[in-house]
Write a structure and sequence with these properties.
Layout: H1 2-6, E1 8-13, H2 36-42, H3 45-50, E2 54-60, H4 66-72, E3 79-83, E4 91-93, H5 113-124, E5 136-142, E6 147-149, E7 152-156, E8 162-167, H6 175-184, E9 191-194, E10 196-197, E11 204-205
Parallel strand pairs: 8-9
Antiparallel strand pairs: 1-2, 1-7, 2-5, 3-8, 4-5, 6-7, 10-11
Organism: Oleiharenicola lentus
Protein name: DUF2971 domain-containing protein
Length: about 210
């Protein structure tokens, strides 16, 4: 409700994501001379580099999976926000490869700029296969352009981008309360619907 009342999305910080493998590449080979902790600390270089400058807002292509509602919508007591987005280069689809993308230390100095960008893109867009159910898409947000409040960053929801608010199956909030919050946040007339249990499948209907 606070998201709607303020018309802003919370921006996640890279160093605070719930997957400890985020933005950390693998090495093709590790010299046993170096202690594990030292190498692991080195592989956090992308997080250290980008955490002060950018954050992310995560979206999912899937709304019917009951597990997503359980994990990210307070066990179906929360809401889902549906957005109409332009699929351009700012929207990053996540990949779920069987193997972690590697940072090739030996080849990196000789890479062209495009090759280096491609390698970094593979690292930033990869999560373990067990996350595949999320069908995640991300937008990277410039932190200096976001609003800072009590250590948290917020990004304004673009006009006409939010098209629907879906109340969870067990959501106690009334539709009229959501409409009031939308108007308070300057989001205007947005469709508000309530999710339903499918009668034949393990699926949430909207």
């Amino acid at each position: 409700m606070k998201t709607l009342e303020q018309g802003e999305l919370h921006v996640s910080r890279l160093a605070e994501l719930n997957d400890p493998f985020e933005f950390r590449p693998a090495l093709a080979w590790v010299n046993p001379v170096f202690p594990h902790g030292v190498v692991d600390q080195f592989l956090g270089f992308l997080v250290r580099e980008f955490n002060p400058k950018m954050g992310i807002v995560s979206f999912s292509e899937e709304i019917g999976d009951p597990v997503l509602w359980s994990h990210y919508a307070d066990k179906h007591r929360g809401m889902a926000l549906a957005f109409d987005v332009i699929r351009d280069d700012s929207l990053w689809p996540m990949a779920y490869p069987e193997e972690r993308p590697t940072f090739d230390v030996q080849k990196f100095p000789g890479m062209t700029l495009e090759e280096a960008k491609a390698m970094v893109h593979r690292i930033l867009a990869a999560k373990a296969p067990s996350w595949r159910y999320e069908r995640e898409q991300r937008v990277f947000v410039d932190l200096p352009s976001s609003r800072l409040e009590n250590g948290h960053y917020f990004h304004r929801i673009p006009a006409d981008c939010l098209v629907q608010v879906v109340l969870g199956i067990a959501c106690p909030v009334r539709e009229v309360e959501v409409q009031e919050a939308l108007w308070a946040g300057g989001l205007g007339e947005v469709a508000v619907v309530r999710a339903r249990r499918c009668l034949t499948k393990f699926k949430v209907l909207v």
